[in-house]
Write a structure and sequence with these properties.
The protein has helices at residues 2-9, 21-24, 57-61, and strands spanning 34-39, 44-48. 26% of the residues lie in helices and 17% in strands.
Length: 65
């Protein structure tokens, strides 16, 4: 097909494909540093150097990480 295109138009054909969100959405990892820890009788809370602005999908539509 590319050879035919080049013969007809005199230009080479270049195809670039970018993987869509469906393929790459589950391939990311959020890296952060724990900056604080608070122990309570019920649970332990950890403070980090990142926020929900970097991990918005759970708030938007309940995605699980």
């Amino acid at each position: 097909m590319a050879d035919e295109w080049e013969k007809i138009t005199g230009k080479s054909l270049r195809l670039s494909i970018e993987p869509g969100r469906f393929i790459v959405a589950d391939s990311a990892t959020l890296l952060c540093t724990i900056t604080a820890r608070k122990n309570t009788p019920e649970m332990t809370f950890y403070g980090t150097d990142t926020g929900f602005n970097h991990l918005i999908r759970p708030a938007l539509y309940g995605a699980h990480h």
